Amino acid sequence: MSGTNHLSAFTQLPQVSSEDEPEKGPFAPAEAGMNRFVWDGRYPKPTKVDKPRTKSRDEESSSDDIAPLALPGAYEVRLSVGSETFSAPFTLLADPRVPASLDDRRAAFELRLGIRDRVSEAAEALNQIQRVRDQVEGWLKRSDDSGLKDAGKALLERLKGVEGELVNLNADKPRPGGNRIKEKLEILSGMIGESDDAPTRGATEVYAELRRQLDEQRRKLAEVLDEPVRGFNELVGGLGLSAVGP
User: Fold this and answer.
1) pLDDT bucket at 220, cuts 50 / 70 / 90
2) Taking the chain, what is the end-to-end CA distance rounded to the nearest angstrom?
3) Residues of 211-226 as b/e, b for ≥16 C-beta within 10 angstroms?
4) HSE-up of 71 (CA within 13 Å, CB side)?
């Protein structure tokens, strides 16, 4: 199958159509001559953590598992070449061996899509934390100013506090700590993906609680990136250095 990154018009799911969400890939090759693109039937993967602090999980394979499979139904593949666009319909068929109804499949799909988006939000927060940490640590190494060092260390501790709620920072140790929000979301997605049946009420409730916890940590991160970072930047600016940004 040849086409661009969003292969389908998602006629059954207009709320997640190619017109509504940014293009993330995968992209079809665009080399001279014949090209072939095989879609695995999955939606785009969640945002990746740029610099994972632990190596106990394979970030790439985890992302593959979280990307939900498209529902059975009618779709459209599109290929754009310059100002021209070519399209062709195709159909995804349900596995006849699986008795789950389309409504059940849709409920599982929508929950897994929500989990994917929450995992992306957690990863984006972790990437933001890492970018600020790198800058702060860089200035702490370059400056001997005691006020700047104290403010920097306090800022790093607050960043670590949020980070430690989003992901287990001790996963690589002989006695690792418990899973955190991002890891629990990934596990929940895997549990739902084991069946095509509708998610249980328990799974839905766990997702709602994890989403609440994630929103709380994102709020705390926004607070850290506001006043503490601004205060640190005032000290940095007083020393004639470049400000820290998220």
Assistant:
1) very high
2) 40
3) bebbeebbeebeebbe
4) 25
